[in-house]
Amino acid sequence: MSDFAYGFFYPFRCIPLFFRKPKLILFSIVPVLINLLIYGTIFYFVFSWIYNTSSNITGANNPDALFYQELLHILVLFTTVILLLVICYFFFITIGGIISAPFNELLSVIVEEELTKIKVVNPRGFFADSWMSIKAEVVKLGFYLSISIPLFLLNFIPIVGFIFDILNIIFSSFYNALDFLDIPMTRREIKLRQKIKITNSGGMLSYGFGAIAFIIMFVPVINVLLKPLLVVSGTSLFFEKDYLKFYK
After folding, report:
1. Which residues are CB-contacts of 196 (< 8 A; sequence separation ≥ 6)?
2. What does residue 229 show for φ and ψ, rounded to 5 degrees?
3. What is the pTM of this model?
4. Per-residue pLDDT tens for 39-65?
5. 247 partner at 20 to 30 Å CA-CA among 34, 107, 154, 185?
6. Tens digits of residue pLDDT in 145-196
7. 114 burial class (0-12, 13-18, 19+ CB within 10 angstroms)?
8. Using CA atoms, how far apart are residues 7 and 177, in angstroms rounded to an integer?
9. CB atoms < 10 A from the CB of 11, how many?
10. Cβ contacts of 27 within 8 Å, gap of 6 or more
11. How many CB atoms lie within 10 A of CB 150?
12. What is the pLDDT of residues 107-134, one digit of tens each?
């Protein structure tokens, strides 16, 4: 469990990197603003629509609304918030991940150069490299959706559904570890199958890091603000623990 704990708290060990390399803060601002706009827009419009619809259907918007009507309205809103968290999480790691991919690449390069003391040479150029990062995100998201959606739907099976819910949480932890360890692997043009093997070979270290990444990515606002920290810590962990040794 020591590896799990180390991975779980690892992002917070990387906070000083932002003060040693101020460019990390600079390159974090744009993706944070973009993701705040995406996340905030989805949450605001969907919640507003549900709120107004629920008020009309339950009659809670009437001045003389009865207690049970207001209670039903509150229950609908509570359920809506929970569902919105799930929906926004999906949108955040899909659309947000694709949009922020080029910026995440820049953050990762800065960290790699700082840790290895070796200049990262990019023969492809910024735009070609950005396109490669976006394509890698799309492929990785295809893998995520092909597993998480069936697990989510199986969660509704009576009695045994909770087992699939637990499996979905475990898989989400693994995926988040893969997501943030992936950037230096994409830079080396490692295929998805090998990326999965490398991440899984990290054992409890990967799952601990993935667990805290999953928690952070699920919490509104916090996920947007701390995603650059996860990008930085993912690259840092990749080189500190030499994940490339698992690449055969």
Report:
1. 143, 178
2. -65, -40
3. 0.80
4. 778 778 877 877 777 777 777 777 776
5. 107
6. 888 888 878 877 877 777 888 898 899 999 999 999 999 998 888 999 999 9
7. middle
8. 10
9. 22
10. 103, 106, 107, 110, 228
11. 12
12. 999 999 999 888 887 666 656 666 777 7
Say which residue the tokens 């805290």 belong to: 212
| Two tokens, residue 127 | 């735009």
The token duo for 19 is 């003060």
Q: What is the DSSP string of the chain?
A: -HHHHHHHHHHHHTHHHHHH-THHHHHHHHHHHHHHHHHHHHHHHHHHHHHHHHHHHH-TTSTT--HHHHHHHHHHHHHHHHHHHHHHHHHIIIIIHHHHHHHHHHHHHHHHHHHH------TT-HHHHHHHHHHHHHHHHHHHHHHHHHHHHHTTSTTTHHHHHHHHHHHHHHHHHHHHHHHHHHHTT--HHHHHHHHHHTTHHHHHHHHHHHHHHHSTTHHHHHHHHHHHHHHHHHHHTTGGGG--
Residue 66: predicted pLDDT: 67
Looking up tokens 């101020």 gives 22
Q: Where are the alpha helices (DSSP H) in 155-191?
A: 161-187
Show the tokens assigned to 179: 């997501």
DSSP assignment, residue 170? Answer: H
C-alpha distance across the termini of the chain, in Å: 26
- CA separation for the pair 24, 70 (Å, rounded): 48
